[in-house]
From TrEMBL:
Residues 25-375 form the Protein kinase domain. Keywords: ATP-binding, Magnesium, Metal-binding, Nucleotide-binding. This is Protein kinase domain-containing protein. Mg(2+) binds at N241, D254. It comes from Polyplax serrata.
Length: 387
């Protein structure tokens, strides 16, 4: 349920999750199947048109998927899609446009957007009646006992992680099905959506400065330094897996792979696994080797995204197949590999850091502790605007 590589065995002793009352959850949106979802405030929804991802069993018909628009009855587009795909078991994406309060009903897992009341803060103190947006990680009804145990074990491990630059597990609903795990969400949403709305300018108070972008990247490096210290590997580090809040506070998350708005960032491999090939180190993609040093590679791609204000996908001029072939050039060490170009606002020393992170040999890449210290020094004295 998470791309983070969770160690075998029991979770640490300090990983106890708080049972959260279901009646204090208010569903804002249901985004479809897949287990994870994004959360937004309906009154301030600035997301692009929603996409709903769904899968159908081989014996499915129009009744298997119902999308409601504040009324009963199947949505016409959903019924047509269900009918046209009823003989397959693949996953499809249905574009629904600017609908609000949509609901997807399915006999499999669902993605929830929720508002929670009474979440404990970072120090374990109740926020009383303060409402907070959360991501719901849900497990489908009827899952096997082993699947439930694995789901809760993974969640317990994540609950043990306590760092200001990582999204916290804030509660669990485990007394009845479906099982829910609640993960905090940030006020300003996902980093790509936020940065695409900004103007890169030193003097424009409505935009973000270069110093602000480095400040954002420094926080991501800090969160990853914490994971590195625990020998935990993220495996899907990217701008889409970072959330941003007030005063540009950034937290690393893990649920973008299940959010259909990012489906184009993943490549469906022959193994049916969804791989973020444009962010992956060559040894992870071709040899299946995942280490903190492969996360370092992904961090450099994330840093490139940030300095580009997420205006384009990495290697946008290449197909997914060509990106895989590019990794093969690195594997062969034939000198034909291509690297991401230097972003316009990027000083040479920052681009040199990216190059260090993209060294062919993983052992030659820097540690996150070194990256964090380097970025701190390069942005010494910067303070985010508090206005």
């Amino acid at each position: 349920m998470t791309p983070i590589k969770i160690p075998e065995g029991s979770a640490p002793e300090d990983s106890k999750m708080v049972e959260f009352p279901r009646h204090r959850l208010r569903v804002l949106e249901k985004l479809g199947e897949g287990g994870f979802g994004m959360v937004s405030d309906q009154k301030k929804n600035t997301f692009p048109p929603l996409q709903f991802e769904f899968s159908l069993p081989e014996d499915a018909d129009e009744s298997e998927l119902i999308i409601e628009e504040n009324c009963d009855g199947p949505h016409e587009a959903a019924a047509e899609a269900a009918a046209s795909t009823a003989t397959t078991a693949e996953t499809f994406v249905l574009q629904l446009g600017d609908l609000e309060r949509n609901q997807i009903k399915s006999r499999r897992s669902e993605v929830h957007l929720c508002e929670a009341e009474g979440i404990l803060d970072f120090n374990g103190v109740s926020t009383s009646h303060k409402k907070q947006l959360v991501v719901i990680k849900s497990l489908w009804r009827g899952a096997s006992e082993n699947t439930k145990k694995d789901f809760l074990r993974e969640s317990s491990w994540l609950a043990s992680l306590k760092d200001p630059n990582l999204c916290r597990i804030v509660g669990v609903c485990s007394l009845e099905e479906p099982l829910y795990v609640l993960q905090e969400y940030s006020e300003l949403g996902e980093l790509p959506q936020f940065l695409r709305l900004q103007n890169l300018s030193e003097g424009d108070e409505n935009g973000v400065s270069y110093g602000c972008l480095i400040y954002i990247a420094t926080q991501i490096a800090s969160g990853m330094k914490y994971l590195e210290s625990l020998e935990l590997i993220h495996r899907d580090l990217s701008a889409r897996n970072c959330l941003i809040g007030k005063q540009y506070c950034v937290k690393v998350s893990d649920h973008a792979i299940y959010c259909s708005r990012y489906s184009n960032d993943y490549y469906l491999a022959d193994t049916k696994a969804r791989l973020p090939v444009r962010w992956m180190a060559w040894e992870s993609l071709l040899l299946g080797k995942h280490t903190s040093k492969s996360d370092v590679w992904s961090f450099a791609v994330t840093l490139w995204e940030i300095l580009m204000c997420c205006s384009q996908q990495p290697f946008a001029e290449l197909t997914n197949e060509q990106v895989v072939e590019n990794s093969n050039h690195l594997y062969q060490n034939d000198g034909l590999a291509r690297y991401l170009p230097r972003p316009p606002p990027c000083p040479r020393e920052i681009y040199d850091l990216m190059g260090e992170c993209w060294k062919r040999q993983a052992a030659d890449r820097p540690l996150f502790s070194e990256i964090h210290l380097f970025l701190q020094r390069k942005n010494l004295g910067y303070m985010p605007c508090t206005g």
